[in-house]
Amino acid sequence: MRNDTMTRDRQPEIEDIGSNPAPRETIGELVERRLSRRAAMRGFFGAAATAVLADQLLVSGGQALAAQAGPSSLSFKEVAHQMTARDAVPEGYEIQTVIRWGDAVLPDAPAFDPLRQTAEAQAAQFGYNNDYVDFFPLPRGSSNASHGLLAVNHEYVDTQLMFPDMGDEDSARQRSSREQARVEMAAHGMSVVEIRRENGRWAPVKAGRLNRRITADTPMRVSGPAAGHERMRTSADPTGRLVLGTLNNCAGGNTPWGTVLTAEENFNQYFGGAAAKTGAQAAAYKRYGIVEKSSYSWTKYEDRFNLDKEPNEPNRFGWIVEFDPYDPESRPVKRTALGRFKHEGCTHAVSADGRVAFYSGDDERFDYVYKFVTARPWNPNDPAANRDLLDDGTLFVARFHEDGRVEWLPLVHGQGPLTAENGFASQADVLIETRRAADLLKATPMDRPEDVQPNPVNGRVYVMLTNNTRRGPEQADASNPRAANRHGHVIEIIPPGAGTGAVDHASAEGRWEIFLMAGRPGVDAGAQYHQATSSEGWLSCPDNCAFDAKGRIWISTDGAPGTSKVADGLYAADTDGEGRALTRLFYQAPTGAEVCGPCFTPDDETIFLAIQHPGDDKGSSFANPSTRWPDFQEGMPPRPAVIAIVRRGGGKIGA
Ligand code: FEO
Ligand code: CA
Ligand code: CA
Ligand code: CA
């Protein structure tokens, strides 16, 4: 999701509504005091405290450091910060375009013609605004690193860049015609594409047998405690168990048993109607940012998006959806036990006892970090035993204490305030209104949680907090220490047993630390990294992350500040040892784009990136875009695409 705090808000109704009505008042300590917390400072360079030194680093040392790894284990030569029509990788690396918006996915897909796009064509072609990327080796269960299925989310559309003659305004999607709206619906959802690496080059396998498109119309089953509930029923589906489509799929994840988890994020923007203000569920709509005026035109053409006609339809979005990428006929399932909010992603770690924890952020200013823990261990020997494992378990929300403890609060009907007196008649009510339940439990309001992802090497869990410009000084707390947090930060959660062979991801307790505070050292107050971070290595607005086999973190960004002429990118850092939190710039995106879905092949020799909304700059349009990435062909608009980055001649990424 486009996230730009300085120059524009492409989707103000999404990014500006901090819809948590009463963020908990926190202990009003000063930013500097928080940043001086014991271990949070160890090995860091506190720019706010020593601005003079920061200038020396950036002016006299920065350029020299940019070429060197310093104490980092990462040996690539950093690229330079830039803001241009093209993207960049370090010397010795190569960018390959794997698949673009409009490329064929299904065998009957026609050739892409952006001037004459149809819904039918789009439903057989690769969708728009790719976010989550995952690689599932072929055959199933293997660790093949040169042949597999790419599973990709299509989060939303940029109508002004998709169609000619829509102008260059953010509001173009509210003016789509009926047929354009049908194209937009077909451009949402997911793609599964068989790909292969031959002679060093990645490419789709023509008409791959397992290829699949999932769109805003694909039938899905609802399971778990909210399935069939009265508030899940509509006139088209009186059972409350069958939904059409998945919407605004941002990041995602997978399971130990090899299924995809796709996360429904800003689902609120597709709905509209007077009921947002006056309907029986108005308070619940408000907590999820559902307003009278939809960001899309779809409310005009399909009753299900009109709150006045189908007040329960939005309750059927905001879930985690599971499906088997190896079976194109399998019906996706909305797993309600994992809660309903603006799920950024959903990543897992197997606990020492075999139960599986799934971590998920709720990407909104002042919203929360969650985990779901299965009731039973997963069974590596019996796929059938895992089929509905996600229907039974406990959903927790995080409270980050000032003293470095993290407490996981269970969202269980009948416990604490989650009772009928507070409007929760059942666990279904708790899940449909997960945010309100978490409010009552006094979870810690965070600075927009995006990916929350376990590091398989050190057992810690990394929380990307993208930014929160609305946090006032009196609302700063230990885990969100910066007021008007424009650049975001990264927190580490340390479960019991982290660093040993027996990590307890199911525990209701743990500890936490700050890993880095983003922003430009010496310029942005509170920026904190390893002291050897170069003038190119600082980042802004962390969004997605991935870990390589050495446990190093690769962070992609969304919302790099336009005023600094820095595009979004991919940054890598050690998480342990001398180079801890020494971030280094590996990839710089074309203008207007965010970088999503970092995903390694099992051999770490390829990293896939989803380059989302290239050319999404102010004044950029189909006719006159700010970039024509990746084709650079006259008349061809910019195309969201998945790229593969490899080393020339082979070898592990980052080395
Ligand atoms: Fe779709 Fe939270 O970014
Ligand atoms: Ca984002
Ligand atoms: Ca995101
Ligand atoms: Ca991730």
Care to describe what's here?
This protein has 655 residues and is of the alpha+beta class. 12% of the residues lie in helices and 27% in strands. A hairpin with a 4-residue loop joins β18 and β19. Strands 14-15-17-18-19-24-23-22-21 form a nine-stranded antiparallel sheet, with no helix packed on it. It has a six-stranded mixed sheet with strand order 9-8-13-12-11-10, with no helix packed on it. The longest helix is centred in the N-terminal third of the chain and has 16 residues, at 51-66. One calcium ion is lined by residues 1, 3, 450, 466, 543, 558.
Furnish the topology, listing elements before pairings:
Layout: H1 12-15, H2 31-35, H3 38-41, E1 44-46, H4 51-66, E2 93-100, H5 119-122, E3 130-137, E4 147-154, H6 159-162, H7 178-187, E5 189-198, E6 201-204, E7 212-214, E8 219-223, E9 242-244, E10 249-254, E11 260-264, H8 275-278, H9 282-287, H10 298-301, E12 320-323, E13 333-335, E14 347-350, E15 356-361, E16 365-367, E17 369-374, H11 383-386, E18 393-400, E19 405-410, H12 427-432, H13 434-440, E20 446-447, E21 449-454, E22 461-465, E23 489-494, E24 509-517, E25 528-530, E26 542-547, E27 553-557, E28 569-573, E29 584-588, E30 594-600, E31 606-612, E32 641-647
Parallel strand pairs: 8-13
Antiparallel strand pairs: 1-25, 2-32, 3-4, 4-5, 5-6, 5-7, 8-9, 10-11, 11-12, 12-13, 14-15, 15-17, 16-20, 17-18, 18-19, 19-24, 21-22, 22-23, 23-24, 26-27, 27-28, 28-29, 30-31, 31-32
The structure holds MU-OXO-diiron (FEO) and calcium ion (3 copies).
